[in-house]
Design brief:
The chain has 344 residues and is α/β, with parallel strands linked by helices. It is built from 14 helices and 13 strands. Strands 1-5-6-7-10-11-12-13 form an 8-stranded parallel beta sheet.
Length: 344
């Protein structure tokens, strides 16, 4: 069965080597699958070991792993550790992001027409729209991947308006991945930043975009990682605030209506929750996402979607048809896939 995974990550080795030369990375443990990044780049604590699977920098290894789980195509983005989300150093952020996009383009070019890049942008800086345009026009990416903060600014800050205007005009695919956590000190134990902090961070950033009227002003094609984190389950409370608190009554429509205009990946790791997500948001608003190749990823995504017990059309919608359309038909345009679809 065909499938497009919109949530997976790459860390091109030339970028990491450049960061190491600049004193911002340590690759001495790379043979053990570990990289250390300076906090100004990673946004996490100093000397935090970050996983560096071979498929993050070796496209052939990635393709073999994709074959093992039955996924045909990846829309590849860099992980939040390379977003420089917490840095307010414009030169560091813009240079790192630009180099990362160049290397990501080379990485996906080795993907036998099965890898599609989602470029990064320097959120919170005036250069964000220009880098997004370069990703779309010069590098040939079908969209971008962004964090939930950048340059000391929130996503609803006016500095990002030019970025939203461009992406809305181009109908570019936007993948949102949490790039920080709220109140990090309370989450220093038990791997809580990834387990709890990331889902909460997504909800906070998108709630700000809703109440900040970003979605009312710009028609964005936006997909949220991890099934939107906490956001889908907060719709009632967001609507309640919109109804009863003047300060939260900023839009003509209630927040839940804007939630229904977004897309969500399947990486929620619970069939019941995923079933609710599909039922609440619509089958055409849910896209396959695995978080490959990190340890908190879905290792059998085809089974995950099949477990929902949907009909063939709805199953195909989640697995690839909606993503195929949003990404500009990268999969169905391939002759071998086109003919296989007709044979099926």
């Amino acid at each position: 069965m065909l499938a497009i995974d919109v949530h997976n990550h790459a860390m091109p080795l030339p970028l990491l080597e450049w960061l190491q030369h600049a004193g911002l990375a340590d690759l001495s443990r790379s043979t053990d699958g570990i990289v250390l990044l300076d906090p100004s780049v990673s946004g996490v604590g100093k000397n935090t070991p970050l996983p560096l699977a071979r498929s993050q920098y070796d496209a052939r290894t990635r393709l073999a792993e994709m074959d093992d789980i039955g996924v045909w195509a990846h829309a590849v983005s860099m992980p939040p550790f390379l977003y420089c989300s917490n840095s307010e150093d414009s030169r560091l952020v813009t240079t790192t992001i630009a180099r990362g996009n160049d290397e990501l383009a080379r990485y996906v070019a080795d993907g036998a027409d099965r890898l599609y890049g989602l470029g990064s942008v320097p959120l919170g800086f005036p250069e964000a729209a220009g880098e997004a345009l370069r990703c779309l026009d010069d590098l040939g990416f079908p969209g971008v991947a962004i964090g939930t903060r950048g340059g000391g600014k929130e996503l609803d800050d006016a500095v990002n308006d030019d970025l939203w205007a461009l992406l809305a005009e181009r109908r570019a695919f936007i993948f949102v991945h949490p790039s920080g956590v709220p109140d990090a000190h309370r989450q220093r134990d038990f791997y809580l930043p990834q387990l709890v902090g990331y889902p909460a961070e997504t909800a906070i950033s998108i709630a700000r975009m809703i109440y900040g009227r970003v979605f009312e002003r710009f028609d964005l094609v936006m997909c949220l990682a991890h099934g939107g984190g906490c956001l889908p389950w907060l719709r009632g409370r967001l609507d309640l605030g919109w109804q009863r608190k003047d300060v939260a009554h900023t839009t003509t429509l209630p927040p839940s209506e804007f939630c229904k205009r977004l897309y969500y990946d399947t990486a929620v790791f619970d069939t019941t929750l995923l079933s609710h997500l599909v039922s609440d948001m619509g089958v055409d608003r849910v896209l396959l996402g695995t978080d490959h190749p990190f340890e908190l990823g879905d290792t059998d995504p085809m089974a995950t979607v099949r477990s929902l017990g949907l009909g063939d059309d709805d199953t195909e919608s989640i697995l690839w048809r909606t993503a195929d359309s949003l990404l500009g038909s990268p999969l169905s345009a391939l002759p071998e896939v086109h003919s296989a679809t007709h044979r099926g």
